[in-house]
Structures are given as C-alpha cells and as structure tokens.
Design goal:
Length: 403
C-alpha cells in the first residue's frame, strides 16, 4: 500500500500551522569553475539557519530520470502521486485566471512566440511581452470566426502566456502539443491522439492558421504555440485527504489554478514579490496550511541567468523573518522541479528541501541549504509526495497507526 494512503487515514485536524514555501525551479547544477549553484552562491542566512535547525534531503518530483512539468511537480508537493493524477497545463491556466471551465471543455495553454520568415521559432516566449500587449493581441484573436455550434475562448494569462478553451459537443482533449520546446524549427502540426479528438483537432488547426494570419505583422508575437490540452479532472481535495484548511499565496495564474483544483482558498494575488509578507500575514487566520509560491527563480533559470536566480534567492531570504514572524509550527522550503541555468529548462534532477520544526524533526547536521549539502540530509532521497507527510507528522497532524 502507498504510505500516503495511511497518512490520509490517520490525518487529523489540529491548531498547528504549516507554511510551504516553494521556490519554483530552485534546483540547479554546479557550474564549471567554482562548482557553485545559484542557491550555494547566494547569501541566505535565514534559509541556512532553517537548514541547520531542521532536516534536509533531496526529493524526486515524479521519479529518477523523469523531467516533470510544473503540474506534476506541484501535485507531488501537495502529497499526490503525479502518475495517478495528471492535469494538463491548459486546465491549470484556465482555472488559474478564474475562467469558469465546464466539464467537457478542452483547454490548452498557449505562448505567443516569434517566428522567422521561414516559419521557424526564434523565441518561444516572444521576448516575454508585457501582459498589456498580450491583452491587445488576445482581443485581435477573439475576432477569428469559429464553426457553428462551437464556442472558442481566448484568454490572457500573464506576459506571453494565455489560455485557449474550446466548448462544444463531442469534443476530445487528447491532442499533441504544437510547441516543439526548442528554437530553429517550425511549430508542430495540430494532431489528434485518438479518434474522439479529431473534431477538436480540426477546430484548433483552423484557429492556429487564422491566428498566424492575424498576427503576421507583429514584430515579436507573430505566432502561437499550444501545449497541455486537457479537460477538467476530478481530484480529491487536501481537506478531504488530510483534513487541512489550505490557502494559496501566489501571483502566477497557473499555480493558483492548481491550488484551486486541490481545494485551496484563493485570496487576491500579491502583485509583486515584495508584497508576499503582507499577503502571508493576511492569509494565516482560519488556515493551517499556507502554500507560498515564488515563480522568479524558475524564470531566471529558464533565461540562463545565474546572477538573477541567485538574487531572487537572496530577496526571498531577506523576507523570511517577516514572512515567518507571526509564527509557524512547521516550515517547509522546496521546489517543484529543478531548472538548471546551464540547461535553461526543467530537468530530471531531484530538488533540495528542508523541514523545520523545533523538537519535532531530526537535526541532521546540515549547516547550509544547498543542493550538495542536502545530499547528506536526514531525509536522504525520496519521492516528493512524501515531503508533505513529513510536514504533517512534524505538525502533529498524523495519528498513530496500529495498536
């Protein structure tokens, strides 16, 4: 039996509070020369103190050698087996912007991208255009005609990202991504992966062709790339599974969407990283599990920017006393996946993590919160979904199993 099933059965509600701070894409690889990662190079006295007084380890979001998307990574953080509960990126994007997704809708995440004169992708993110420019372009895409009996919704998410939702009868969601995940090649064709999805593929292919024509004169965002086609799934909530009263503090819609799908309450998004301490303070009352998501480490990794990734870690570290100032019984710090600067993409490498709970966790002798130090941590290396179990136990939220 999966041990998480026992944790579910033995979970109980208590007044203790857990904060899970997720620095997206935090894990990295040592660079040639000094052998440092951004996490190791950063000046982060508060994170290092939590590591010294807590227990550390490395965790596989899905499994060894498997590169996870953000959805599977976060499901693991929330104690779900990501191989059992799969959620397409499109669904996360749609619910993250509060779109009223209905059963049977087919949703996809799209990027505005830059194409050269031969139709090859030169920038998968169109230079990270502003959200305001995104809205202008989305307004143009909304004028594209659609077949009778079909509704098509084009929605802004943030920066270069958006959500495409197809609504109608008899639609299937099993479509392949059109994002080739690299530059120098054209977008992939819209392709149905089973017979039921063929009508949806025809609708989407026609839209993509019309979108290319509508965006043709744009200097940067002159194409779109689609990925993560899916329909609304059913996922048991954190309240049902672990008796938690969870709340989400996050800015980016996709992560808010995933948190909403597992039953987290959703206060207004903090507009900038500097506003996170106030948002955490406001969210504490009435909740015993706070999910705090920082996106900017991942963005720096994807851009191959070592110094900026290091700076984000330092900014988060400087805010920690204020974030934790009201007192939490358990503090978890981790990531949903690794985004090494050298790779500029998600990778299969395990993520560093710590659990701080005075008198409730084994102090393992780790003196700094780094990837290499965590290899000697007391947790060792284990699946990421077990990290929540450790936090729940340290918070006194898991009753004894058996006589």
């Amino acid at each position: 039996m999966d041990p998480m099933r026992i944790v579910e059965a033995q979970a109980e509600q208590t007044p203790s509070k857990i904060v899970m701070l997720v620095m997206d894409g935090l894990g990295d690889l040592p660079r040639y020369g000094d052998g440092l990662t951004p996490l190791a190079a950063a000046n982060k006295p508060n994170l290092d103190r939590l590591a010294r007084d807590g227990c550390c380890g490395r965790f596989d979001p899905v499994g060894p050698g498997i590169t996870p998307g953000s959805g599977p990574g976060h499901l693991g953080l929330f104690g779900y087996d990501p191989t059992e509960f799969e959620i397409g990126r499109g669904v996360l994007s749609a619910v993250g912007i509060d779109f009223a997704l209905q059963p049977g809708d087919v949703a996809a995440r799209f990027n505005f991208c830059t194409l050269d004169g031969k139709g090859r992708v030169t920038d998968r993110r169109a230079g990270r255009i502003s959200t305001e420019e995104n809205r202008r372009l989305v307004a143009r895409l909304r004028t594209i005609p659609v077949p009778k009996g079909v509704k098509l919704f084009v929605e802004t998410e943030a920066e270069h990202r958006g959500a495409l939702v197809v609504r109608g009868k008899g639609l299937g969601h099993r479509l392949a991504d059109t994002d080739p995940q690299r530059t120098g090649v054209p977008p992939l064709p819209v392709k149905a992966l089973d017979a039921k999805a063929k009508p949806t593929a025809a609708i989407v292919a026609a839209f993509v062709e019309a979108a290319s024509a509508a965006l043709g004169g744009e200097p940067r965002a002159n194409g779109i790339l689609l990925r993560g086609f899916d329909s609304l799934p059913h996922i048991p909530s954190l309240a049902d599974r672990f008796r938690l009263r969870p709340v989400c503090v996050a800015t980016y819609p996709m992560y808010r969407g995933l948190a909403r799908l597992v039953g987290m309450e959703m206060p207004p998004a903090p507009p900038a990283l500097g506003e996170f301490p106030a948002a955490v303070r406001a969210a504490r009352d009435g909740h015993d599990f706070l999910f705090v998501h920082v996106k900017y480490t991942d963005k720096a990794g994807e851009d191959g920017d070592f110094d900026r990734k290091c700076a984000v870690v330092e900014q988060v570290d400087a805010m920690l006393p204020e974030i934790l100032g009201d007192g939490f019984d358990v503090v978890v710090v981790s990531a949903d996946h690794s985004t090494p600067v050298a790779l500029k993409a998600h990778s299969w490498h395990p993520v560093p993590a710590l659990v701080w709970a005075p008198g409730r966790v084994f102090r393992d002798g780790v003196t700094a919160f780094t990837e290499s130090a965590c290899t000697a941590g007391g947790f060792g290396r284990m699946p990421l979904r077990f990290l929540l179990a450790e936090a729940l136990a340290a918070a006194g939220k898991v009753a004894k199993f058996g006589a």
